[in-house]
Write a structure and sequence with these properties.
Radius of gyration: 27 Å
Distance between the termini: 57 Å
Largest sheet: 2 strands, parallel
Number of strands: 2
Order of helices and strands: HHHHHEHHEHHHHHHHH
Oligomer: single chain
Number of helices: 15
Strand content: under 5%
Strand order of the largest sheet: 1-2
């Protein structure tokens, strides 16, 4: 297969790749830390071209922020800076520019468990993190990070708590709070905050159907659990003590996958022996008639 008119092992292809790397890198040298970023990219390419695996690994370590000291980085790659807690966001913007320069639309950054910022007990440290989030928000909204999209996952408490949450930082609250019409209970998916609804019992049941089929496909057997058995499993899950407060899709999926693995590895054991007999039977229904199968759910 040819790449831009060159065969994969063609020397001309290598020269073309190198030329493009340096073209892109030179455009990034004017950005904050752009020179060092470009130098490390070039080091990775040279390591690849000359078969120097250690040089490639050093470049990847630097890009992942795994160098502990500047001295170590200078010795390995000839760069005098490292990626650390203070400058990591600058390098995310560089990555976004780089991905855009090589033909992609940009880069999406996902930051999960934002509630850990809420849990920081030191108010100064917590506010410092919120200030960084404010900078990130302003950059993406004001065109200073055009190719970078940022998604932060967190609980309502992490966002709305006026004492320790994002809304405790007035500059963030004024930017994130819903407007007059968005506060009327209608989701606005173009706003800075997208409120996610909990999965209903019916939606979790559909998820279990998909997991049952995927498990059977992956391990090469015919799915045997019926819709009635899936509903029985859900009934057992929601009837546990404290399920109203503690039951989450993660808990249901974990137990269901454990059930599938056990039934698959021990075919002599029945579903009823593991989950228990059902005390009442639902009305007869076809496999795809969820309404009938869900008739006994108290939603």
């Amino acid at each position: 297969m040819k790449e831009n008119g060159y065969m994969p092992d063609s020397p001309q292809l290598g020269e073309e790749v190198e030329q493009r790397i340096y073209t892109v890198a030179s455009e990034m040298r004017g950005l904050v830390h752009g020179f060092d970023f470009a130098k490390v990219l070039a080091a990775y390419w040279n390591g690849h071209k000359h078969g120097e695996d250690e040089l490639k690994q050093d470049a990847l370590r630097w890009l992942r922020g795994e160098f502990a000291t500047r001295t170590e980085a200078r010795k390995a790659l000839g760069v005098g800076v490292i990626i650390d807690d203070d400058n990591w966001y600058d390098y995310m913007k560089l990555w976004a520019e780089f991905t855009g320069a090589i033909g992609y639309k940009g880069l999406l950054l996902f930051i999960d468990e934002g509630v850990n910022l809420y849990k920081i007990t030191n108010s100064i440290s917590r506010q410092s993190n919120y200030e960084k989030l404010l900078t990130m928000f302003n950059d993406t909204m004001q065109g200073k990070a055009e190719r970078l999209g940022i998604f932060i996952g967190g609980t309502p408490q992490f966002v709305e708590d006026g004492r320790r949450g994002l809304f405790s930082y007035e500059a963030l609250r004024s930017r994130l709070v819903a407007g007059r019409y968005g506060a009327a209970g209608l989701n606005n998916f173009t706003g800075p905050i997208i409120a996610l609804e909990m999965l209903s019992h019916e939606e979790i049941l559909v998820l279990l159907q998909k997991l049952r089929d995927i498990h059977a496909l992956h391990y090469g057997y015919e799915a045997r659990l019926t819709q009635e058995q899936l509903v029985h499993f859900m009934e057992e899950a929601v009837s546990r003590l404290g399920a109203d407060e503690l039951l989450t899709p993660r808990e249901v999926v974990r137990d269901f996958m454990d059930l599938l693995h056990t039934l698959s590895q021990h075919p002599e054991i029945s579903f009823e022996k593991l989950v228990g007999e059902r005390t009442s039977k639902p009305a007869a229904a076809e496999e795809n008639e969820l309404d009938g199968l869900l008739a006994e759910f108290d939603l």
